[in-house]
Design goal:
By secondary structure, the chain is an alpha/beta fold. It has a single domain, classed as Aminopeptidase (3-Layer(aba) Sandwich), CATH 3.40.630.40. 28% of the residues lie in helices and 14% in strands. The strands form two sheets. It has a seven-stranded mixed sheet, sandwiched between helices. Strands 8-9 form a two-stranded antiparallel sheet. Strand 5, helix 6 and strand 6 form a beta-alpha-beta unit.
């Protein structure tokens, strides 16, 4: 399933969703690094499109479109790559399993549901109420059984696979660096900054990842000429904070890539910079895969 660099498959709006994710394994894992793309899925179930009040393009505004393609060289460099096929608007695996908005449902939710998180308040819980641009998704209220089904068929299998990859990597190498790959919309640069950040690295303000790993990724991106910022405005989501346990040898780093570098955000299409950025990230992946990571062991 590996693609030549610069190549990209067609991305229909409603491909069949037979499996919740794709796991691309190297012929032999040679580095303690796992790459993950939880938000680049674009397999929209027909039932979801029918119950949404939004057109397919507007729904896709929540995607980290094509991110898994940008990191497609990971298996060739000896590192696993896992990416979701289901869209974030359907089920968000960068959330706790039960971050749900009671206003979305037709009956009271169980007591174990986290209805008070800031993500739920923003409409972006495990089952999102709105797309990233703020438009409400649904024509009607959902049943709790619908949420249970999505969490059982998407959230749990994805995290079971990711946790398994991390555990096996630690078993082989004594440590694991999880790089959680995302993209971000255009931003207005803060006053005093001549260029907006093109990459934001999130390590939960130093708690989810050793400084060595964050610095190594930051320096590699800098050598590619990219403007990098740490933890502002994205310090890391559920995946980063849940899996990042440096004292146990598991380090999690979130990477957010400015979409303007590689895609048309209006049409949701790959842009003229796609092949260049894919090539640059391939250089970064190869550099990281060749590095000595023994210092990450507990």
């Amino acid at each position: 399933m590996d693609l030549p660099l610069g190549a990209a498959p067609p991305s229909p709006a409603t491909p069949p969703l037979d499996e919740p994710f794709v796991l691309l394994m190297p012929s032999r894992q040679t580095a303690p690094i796992v790459f993950a793309s939880p938000h680049s899925g674009r397999a929209y179930p027909e039932a979801f499109l029918a119950q949404s009040r939004l057109d397919p393009i507007t729904l896709r505004r929540s995607e980290d479109s094509f991110v898994e393609e940008l990191f497609a060289a990971a298996p060739l460099a000896g590192c696993p790559l896992i990416h979701a096929l289901f869209p974030r608007a359907w089920c968000d695996v960068n959330r706790e399993p039960w971050e749900l908005d009671p206003a979305m449902f037709d009956a009271p939710l169980p007591a174990f549901v986290n209805a008070a998180s800031p993500r739920v308040g923003a409409g972006l819980g495990t089952i999102a109420r709105v797309v990233a641009t703020g438009e409400a998704i649904y024509r009607r209220k959902l049943s709790f059984a619908e949420a249970e089904s999505r969490i059982a068929s998407c959230w749990r299998p994805y995290h079971a696979a990711l946790a398994g990859l991390i555990a096996e990597t630690v078993r082989q190498f004594g440590c694991c660096l999880l790089i959680d790959c995302h993209s971000m919309p255009a931003q207005v640069p803060p006053l005093g900054r001549p260029r907006q950040a093109e990459i934001v690295l999130g390590d939960a303000h130093g708690t989810s990842c050793a400084a060595l790993a964050t610095r190594r990724v930051e320096e590699g991106l800098g050598r590619l000429g990219l403007v990098v910022r740490r933890n502002e405005p994205y310090a890391g989501g559920y995946v980063t904070r849940h899996y990042g346990r440096p004292r146990e040898g598991v380090h999690a780093l979130q990477i957010e890539i400015a979409r303007a570098l590689y895609m048309d955000e209006v049409r949701i299409e790959r842009g003229p910079g796609f092949a260049t950025l894919q090539r640059d990230l391939t250089r970064l992946i190869e550099e990281l895969a060749a590095a000595d990571w023994t210092a990450l062991r507990p």
